[in-house]
Amino acid sequence: MNSFTKHEDPIILERTYRLFREYFKLAEKKRRWSLDEDIPWDQCNPALHGVVADVVETFCSVELYLPDYLSKLIPQVRTNRGRAWFLANWGYEESKHSMALSDWLLKSRQRTDEQMTDLDARVSANEFILPSDSALGMLCYAMMQELATWLNYVQLRRVVKDKGGDPALDTVLRLISVDERAHYDFFRKVVSMYLEHDREATIQHLRDIIYNFQMPAVDLLSDGRQRVERVRALKIFDEEIFYFQVVEPALAALGLTKADLKQRKFKRDASLAVAF
């Protein structure tokens, strides 16, 4: 059953919308960037190690499930204007991320037009199902996912530098990572609000999401396991990184510890989180 209803506390609705307006104002003033003007496309490095392109393609493929994400998330919160309007803005920013990653693959000549068309067809062949049918559960999931995504892009920038460098891709990853961090910050503030409103239910959803966390959509690709292993092998993301660099900082930012999850031991069996 959906945790948010049309009878949701009007104070929460007002506070959420105010958070969105603050987010939007800052984004308009400081974070907006242009695909055509803000990325040095003439500095793409065609000789960059191919494993980087493999990971970029994986990130891009996850972004291509955007229609599924939005078509399922917005109905959960359609009566919460702050959440719904944020998702509309989030969709705009994520679509730009997908285009930037795709453009780099093409402009660097790491992929052909035919290969990208095939990738799009393979993504479209399967429907992504949300990991929770609860709007509160998805709020907790999105918070964790956005922090993980930010970290993924930060780590990939390191790999790009180690594998030969690419000023265009470095710029793309830097711009995307700033957006992802902003997404996380918004979701964290809203989760904090729900902790004040219904601490027990929010912690229950956090517990469920953390213990069962999975990389979105990659399992729908036929070579999903190989893609996950490439990310793991490059030390971009793994279960230990998820625990120490995502879960612990997120809980600390909420004023929580793993003891608040009321489990004897945190289960480090989460699958990789790459992009959402």
List the defining traits of the structure above.
disordered N terminus; Ribonucleotide Reductase, subunit A; mainly alpha; 276 residues
Descriptive account of the structure:
With 276 residues, the protein is an all-alpha fold. The chain has a single domain, classed as Ribonucleotide Reductase, subunit A (Orthogonal Bundle). 66% of the residues lie in helices and 0% in strands. The chain is built from 10 helices and no strands. Helix 6 (135-162) packs antiparallel against helix 7 and helix 6 (135-162) crosses helix 8 (199-211). The longest helix has 31 residues, at 167-197. It is globular, with a radius of gyration of 18 Å.
Helix content: 55-70%
Q: Say what the CATH topology is.
A: Ribonucleotide Reductase, subunit A
Q: What is the radius of gyration computed over CA atoms, rounded to a whole number of angstroms?
A: 18 Å
Structure classification: mainly alpha
How many extended strands? Answer: 0
Mind describing the biggest β-sheet?
none
Summarize the structure.
This protein has 276 residues and is mainly alpha-helical. The chain has helices at 10-31, 50-63, 66-76, 81-107, 113-124, 135-162, 167-197, 199-211, 224-233, 239-253. It is globular, with a radius of gyration of 18 Å.
List the helices and strands and how they pair.
Layout: H1 10-31, H2 50-63, H3 66-76, H4 81-107, H5 113-124, H6 135-162, H7 167-197, H8 199-211, H9 224-233, H10 239-253
Helix pairs in contact: 1-4, 1-7, 2-4, 3-4, 4-7, 6-7, 6-8, 6-10, 7-8
